[in-house]
């Protein structure tokens, strides 16, 4: 396994494990999105499938160590974990409107955050900006 200069073997293993966790979470979110393409949240089967994948993505994200989880999600982690707990433990209390709002407002930014956590150089390049093409 190649590793970046100045990193120890244990640093590389931690990074590889973190990346694996992020990839699994992203996979759940991609499947969630595919369910939305095939149907509406008003369809109970689609709602169930979406909730399952949302809960799974949040649950696997909890495998990240606290430092990386906080760096990725910050204060929003507590709301994410509460959503996961409601879906996992008291599913009959899941509010359709909250799930719909979560899907509409939070899933795309979550995918963005996780995707860019896999390739921080891409985030640095975007932050630096590129010159606008000439008109």
Descriptive report:
With 135 residues, the chain is mostly helical. It has one domain (10-118). The protein contains 6 helices and no strands. The chain has helices at residues 9-38, 44-61, 66-73, 76-89, 96-118, 120-128. The longest helix has 30 residues, at 9-38.
Average residue pLDDT: 83
How many structural domains does the protein architecture include? 1
Helix percent reads: over 70%
What would you call the structural class? mainly alpha
Q: Can I get a quick summary?
A:
With 135 residues, this protein is mainly alpha-helical.
Question: What are the main properties of this structure?
Answer:
mainly alpha, 76% helix, globular, disordered N terminus, disordered C terminus
Task: Record the SSE blueprint.
Elements: H1 9-38, H2 44-61, H3 66-73, H4 76-89, H5 96-118, H6 120-128
Helix pairs in contact: 1-2, 1-5, 2-4
């Amino acid at each position: 396994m190649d590793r970046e200069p100045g990193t120890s073997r244990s640093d590389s293993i931690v990074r590889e494990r973190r990346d694996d966790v992020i990839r699994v979470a992203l996979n759940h979110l991609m499947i969630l999105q595919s369910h939305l393409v095939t149907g509406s949240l008003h369809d109970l089967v689609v709602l169930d499938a979406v909730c399952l994948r949302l809960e799974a993505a949040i649950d696997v994200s909890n495998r990240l160590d606290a430092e990386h989880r906080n760096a990725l999600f910050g204060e929003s982690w507590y709301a994410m974990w509460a959503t996961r707990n409601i879906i996992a433990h008291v599913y009959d209390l899941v509010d359709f409107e909250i799930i719909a709002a979560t899907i509409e407002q939070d899933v795309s930014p979550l995918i963005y955050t996780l995707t860019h956590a896999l390739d921080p150089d891409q985030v640095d390049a975007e932050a630096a900006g590129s010159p606008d093409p000439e008109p």
